[in-house]
Specification:
Number of strands: 32
Number of helices: 10
Strand content: 25-35%
Helix content: 10-25%
Shape: globular
Bound molecules: MU-OXO-diiron, calcium ion
Largest sheet: 11 strands, antiparallel
Structural class: mainly beta
Amino acid sequence: MSSRPEPGRRMLPLLTDNHHGRQAITCQYRCNNACSHEAPNTSDNEYFGDVVRDVVRRRGMLKAGAVFAVAGAGVTALGGTAAAAPAQNAEAEAHGRGRPDRRDGLNFDPVAPNTEDRIVAPEGYDQSVVIRWGDPVLPGAPKFDFDRQTAAAQAKQFGYNNDFCGLVPLGHNRWLMGSNHEYSSETFMFKGYDSANPTEEQVKIGWAAHGFSVVVVEKDFWSGKLVPRLDRHYNRRITVTTEFVLDGPAAGSKYLRTSADSTGRKVLGTLNNCAGGVTPWGTILSGEENFNGYFANSNSGSVDPRVARYGAPSATTSRKWERFDQRFDIAKEPNEFNRFGYIVEIDPHDPKSAPVKHTALGRFKHEGANVRVARDGRVVVYMGDDERFDYIYKFVSKGRIKHGNSQRAREENKKLLSDGTLYVAKFTGDSPAAEIDGSGKLPSDGEFDGVGEWIPLASGDKSFVDGFTAEEVYVFTRLAADKAGATKMDRPEDVEPNPKTGRVYAALTNNTDRGVRPGKEGATEPNPRIGNKHGHVLEWEERGNDPTATKFSWKLFLVCGDPSSPDTYFGGYDKSQVSPISCPDNVAFDKRGNLWISTDGNALKSNDGLFAVPTEGRYRGRVKQFLTVPKGAETCGPVIEDDFVLVSVQHPGEFDEASAENPLSHWPDGGTSQPRPSVAAIWPRRGKICD
Ligand code: FEO
Ligand code: CA
Ligand code: CA
Ligand code: CA
């Protein structure tokens, strides 16, 4: 566990001195100040690690690591453990002191943490901006003019604060690129913005700046750049006024009917779309996350008390949309609130198709959704609910995937997420509770690990939760999961299966309330640090490596932070040879199964960044920083191809003291320009990103 490099060895670059974490202005616009309120999970379902640990011991299961090693037919045994670190040290020593070591197959040397106002990429890599807020998406879009914005123009241009990015292949070096536009930050979008009295046009620009964009992109052979095309057929903007279909078992429910939609099956728009995933059948999934912040009067006496489980009740909103459309006033239109908080499916191949909100995947603050196909053809969707002390879910389809790329197969596969079984995760540790002391110190068995089970909540129109009808499970999913005894986690963000091994990885961003705020749960083996500032990455393997299984074994792969701090863990790898990492948010994989992690709110004095880490073999746990994004920005939506990486640079320059009058980032256009959220590409001048 020593953090000091041995003499002559090269310590990976560490920290600078300028501290910033998540800014208050980001909290206001993005998540309605979620962290300044008590976390809305006030349920008393407890962590049962102790109890089950004894059962596990009696059964002689001893250690989840053993389950991992034997469970995965066709899966390589796990690599590095704490015990393996000395051997790695010796190899690193033998390799040569001070020289970059790329034997992990990741063809870059780590970049140093910094606070620069640019993307800092590794030596030997080029970069370009693919598309920026305000760039044209639809034919006829006017040139972006910061000082003369209109809602009509924004509805044809790339929206604000792009988060998830996904590529759907369209041909050789040609893709449909889908981007979420999570939220608008009016203070940075408009000079002279009066937050108490926004104009109707400003509000309508906000509606058009939210949602989703589909843009055809092509790789330019000569320059290596990824270039957007103004494609008349495929390019599309989805906004807060686009019509969506509600489908699945709760569609048409009394909880989803409004004065504008007596069917409970049609809803306008999507809100706060954060991460997502590309399905094997070529559609894009997108998670509606902090939707609660858009609804006024959630504290009204007449409002359903279940609303409070989705965020602190409040009379007001930041953007005041309720003044221009009363569906955003929960006291006047109580059920509109229930029509957000879903996984949305968009078919980028068919720009005329209505996007779908899948009630079968439950309603919570969906971060993202990622699919794995089981051996029997059923599809499994992994999902996180991004709130302190909330849960990890999965959905298993009833139907089976149709293979092939035909339109017919895609139309059939688009029905897969409409019917199936929704589960929530329960994690149990295998170490004595006394050894999980909240400091992050590893227990005596050397790992934070254990077993888990998937608790069914509902399947089709059958509920498994006492006191809940099936439609109540799908619409008030958080409350059903409370009742079922799910494990309270430290903000589950992106959850994604490794396409090479099948093991699943969940980013748990942070939870500074754990064991700190009175009445809230303390340290548990799956969430072992009190006041968890830097987050961790959880890894699990389904029994038999079958994603439809209801049992699994798990371990913490990374416990993030400054590697010189004793409360961190990097898959057992030598901590003097890893990059510092804080607040993991989105995860992605390259084709070799290396995990890529982007961060949100780095609490280690550096800009946010993108990191890569092998998950198998002798370099398992060796985290290397690939890039940093400009100051004030968050790294989102990583896409890892063989010869380029895409990142969404969200909210550059979003500092509390900044505004449109006082921009504190000038990325990407430089000079005195306003910052613009963008998608950027980074690629190696020669060769591939990993071997
Ligand atoms: Fe939009 Fe959970 O981050
Ligand atoms: Ca343990
Ligand atoms: Ca996120
Ligand atoms: Ca992801």
